Amino acid sequence: MSQAAEVECLLFVAGEPLQLADLARAMQCDPMDVEEALRELQVELGARGSGLQVLAIAGGYQLATRTEYADTVARLAARSDSRLSRAALETLAVIAYRQPTTQPEIEAVRGVSVGGVLKTLQERRLIVDAGRKATMGRPILYVTTQEFLHYFGLKEIADLPPLDDADVSAIVGKVAASAQPAPRSGGADPQEPGTAPQDDAPIGEASS
Amino acid sequence: MLSAARSLLFRLPAYEGPLDLLLQLIRKSKVDIYDIPIAEITRQYMATVELWQSMDLAVAGEYLVMAATLVEIKSRLLLPAPPPAEGDDTEEDPRAELVRRLVEYERYASVVDGLKGLESYRRDLYFRAAMEDPEAYLLPVPEAALDGRALLAALQRALEAAGVKDALVTAVVPRRRLSLRMKMAEVLRRLRSSAEGALFSDFFEVPCRRYEIVLLFLAVLELLRVGKVRAVQRNPLADIRLTAVQEAA
Questions:
Q1: Fewest beta carbons less than 10 Å away: which of A5, A110, B168, B228?
Q2: Residues of chain B with CATH 1.10.10.580
């Protein structure tokens, strides 16, 4: 019995991201050994040209098909739900980078009302309300969910593409000098164990 | 030739709001966002809004508010600047607030393409469906791993499964007919019934309601104040023994 095979069994059966701690409990071993087993499994899958890969996603690990075989699988199973509208993506972006945040704050940034969009996002479980802000009117605070991470194939919020950190405060006053957009904390994220390097590379450039 | 009605095809650019429209006008005019030619951009903005109105398209109020803001900035730029106040040398450009909003909006709008890329990438990944019966999971849920949100979501799923998703949750909150006077009488009656009185903690019946705890505490304080009850505590933090003061016969 190999630990890589054990991990493979667990990921195959689970059907949702399993955390390191879950895997360690089921395998009755140390989380460090699980990480090693995940790496080993990923290498094995890659070596034999498997259609599957180990993916670090939504705070855990999950078996997924490789994107190269997406078209093949799409002829068997319909692709997941419809894409999000631009309004929904903009709203999600504001929430994801500023969370927790409120409807008035989102509307101040986007310059439009977002009540309908927030409802849609909540119905799709991409955001959830997390209490109320202790300001006038006690507006609801919104945060993103595990489903949000899963929807975009992210392991954690820190994996979001970095937000251009234009120094907003410097603009106030008479400034014509162009602000230097300084990418914040980009590229500093350590390679997640079990994530093949080729999984990360095309993400940012997948759109045009 | 095709009939004119069928060949007439409009393709209107879609905007995500007044800030988006402004940014696109600024980009199209190739002007510096930190040095917007307000008169020109306002003219273009108004032309767009008027075009929509001429086509009987409802123009959302947000666009009109922005139009008013632009006109206001334009008029402030035309007016001679007021003499700077004493000690205030930071004379603010009337455009500053608008620029701040535009830049802030653009920060978030610019990651949308990145999110779209992630979305497309993720759609090319397939997973096994989650296990149908959550009860089949044998691993224990670690303590404190479930937060309030997870529990709320679980409750909502359970309610949905039971078909009461949209039913109002109602409860009747009864009015409690309990007064301080009644509580004082109750405490006194109980203390008088035995010579050695009772321990303060004995009065609390589990489960306690907050309301009753407060009322009991107030009742004891009031009884002490009027001298109908005596309280003895042997040492700090020890239980307090309450006894009824014998009324002079």
A1: B168
A2: 180-244
